[in-house]
Amino acid sequence: MLPIDQIRQDFPILNRTNKSGKKLIYLDNAATTQKPIQVIDAINDFYMNHNSNIHRGIHFLGVEATELYEDTRNKVRDFIGADYKEEIVFVRGTTEGINLVASSFAEQIVSKGDRLLITGMEHHSNLIPWQRLALSKKAHLDIISVSDFGEIDVNEVSTKITNQTKLLAISHISNSLGTINPIAEVIKIAHDKGIPVLIDGAQAVGHQPVNMNSLNCDFYTFSGHKMFGPTGIGVLYAKKEYLSQMDPYQFGGEMIKTVSYEDTSFADLPHRFEAGTPDIAGVVGLGAAINYLNSIGLEKIRGYTEDLAIYMADKLCTIEGLKIIGNPTLRGSIVSFVFDHIHPHDVATILDEEGIAIRAGHHCAMPLMHSFNISGTSRASVAFYNDRKEIDQLYEALLSVKTIFA
Amino acid sequence: MSDILKELYHEVILKHNSEPLNFEKREDATFCVEAYNPVCGDQFNLYFDLEEERIVNLSFHGYGCAISKASISILIQLINGKPINEVHTTNHLVKELLLNDGSQYNLPKELAAFAPVRKHSGRIKCVTLGWDSLIEFLENIK
What we know:
Helix content of chain A is 39%, strand content 16%. Chain A is α/β, with parallel strands linked by helices. Chain B contains six helices and three strands; from the N terminus they run H-H-E-E-E-H-H-H-H. The mean pLDDT of chain B is 93. The N and C termini of chain B lie far apart (46 Å).
C-alpha cells in the first residue's frame, strides 16, 4: 500500500478546483501525468542556479549544466536497465524517437517489396512513420490483428513475419485500450527470425519496472511527460550495434567532430543524434522524475495502479448501457468505455463539470476505433496519486450522465 | 444536475439529439456535404437538392455528440426550403451568438438554446460543424 495522502501533497495541481469549485479528480494520466514539486523545483533550480549551454562552456556554469545533463543520461540508463549510457539518446518524446528510428535506421534497410510489421492497436505515432516509409519505398505495412478483448495473438506475430519483414514495431501498453502486450514473447519470436524490434513505451515507463537487459529489445522509446516529468523531453534507447550504424537524424551543432566546407565527421554516440541545443532543463526535470519514482518504487506503483485500474473497470462495467472497450488479461492503468447512445465528448463535458478530467475521442488510434466500429471512447486513466474514492466519484458522475440523457 | 449542465444540455438540444429532424441517408440527393471534425471524429453527411436557389429536401446522417447532432437538426429546421442567402444570414446569427452574445438579435428559440455553449470554448466547434461545412460547400459551388 502506498501513502497516497502524503504522495498527493507532492502534486500541487491536485488542489485545483474547476469553475464550479469542484476539486480536480485527474483521470487523464495516459495523456500526460502531473508533475511532483520535486520535478518543478529541479527545473526551477536549473534556471535559477545552473543555466548554461552544455558540452562547450569552459566556465563553471557550463561544467555544472553538462554534469547535470550527462548524470541524467546515466540515471536513465540505470532506470531502464540498459548497459551503456551511449545507448540513451535524448529526444523530444516518443514520437520523435520513433521517427528517428524510421528515418535513420529503417530508411537504410527497407527496399522495394520489403515488409514492416506493427499491430492494429498502435498510436498514430507508431503507425504513420512506418506507413510513410512503406509508401516511399514501395514496401508493405502488415498489421497484427486485435481481438475483441483488445489483445494480439502471439501466433499471428509468428505467421506475419516473412522473409521480407525488416522491422517489428509494437506498443508496450496500448494507449487506447490499456492492454499490456506480451512484448518479451514478441521480441523473442522476432529475434528468432532475425527481425529487430521497436517498442513504443510511452504508457509503460514510470508506471511499471522496465528493463532493457531482460527485454533484449533493439529500440525502446518513451516520453518524460507521461512519467511525471516535463513535456518536450523523451528518450530513445537503441542498442549500440544499431546506433553505431545509423545515420544522424538531424545535422547542426553539438553532433560533430570536425567540419570543413567539404565534409563533416560526426560526434561519438549518442551525441551525433542530439543536434542543436537540447532541452537541458527538461533533461534535469526528467532526472528529478526518475529520482521521485525510485523513492516510491516502481513495483509498488505497478501493484497499486493495477489494483486501482481493475477496481475501476469492475465498477464501471456494472453501469447499464456502459461498455468497456477491450478486456485484456493484463491491464495497464487505462480503461476505455462507451455508452450506447451518449457521445464521449458529452460524457467528458459532464464529468468536467464535476471536476473529473478524462479524455474523449479516438486517442490517436483511428483505425483501431474503426475496427471496434466506434468513432471514439471515453478514457479514464489512473496514476499512483489517484484512489478508490475518486473512482467512486467517477462512477457516481457517470450515473448522472445517464440521467441527463435518459 | 448542475445549473451549468442544465443550461448546456437545454431540453431543445436533448430533444433534437434524441429525435433529430430528417435523419436519413439519401442516395438520390444532388449534393452530399461531409461535416467532419478530425479532432473528435464527429462525422455527418448533409444531403440536399437545389431548386431555384433554394435548399430543399435537406436531410443528414452520421455520428457525433449531442451538440453537433442537435445543431445540424436545428439547421435543417431553420433553412430547409429557404433561399441560399438565408443560410448565410442564419449562419451569421449562429456566429454572433457564439462569439459575441447575439442578444441584440431576435433569435429563433432553437438557436438561443446554444447560447450557453459560449462558456464552453471546447464545444463551440460542435455547434458550428454543420454550418461551416455547408457554407464552405455553397461558396465552392457558386
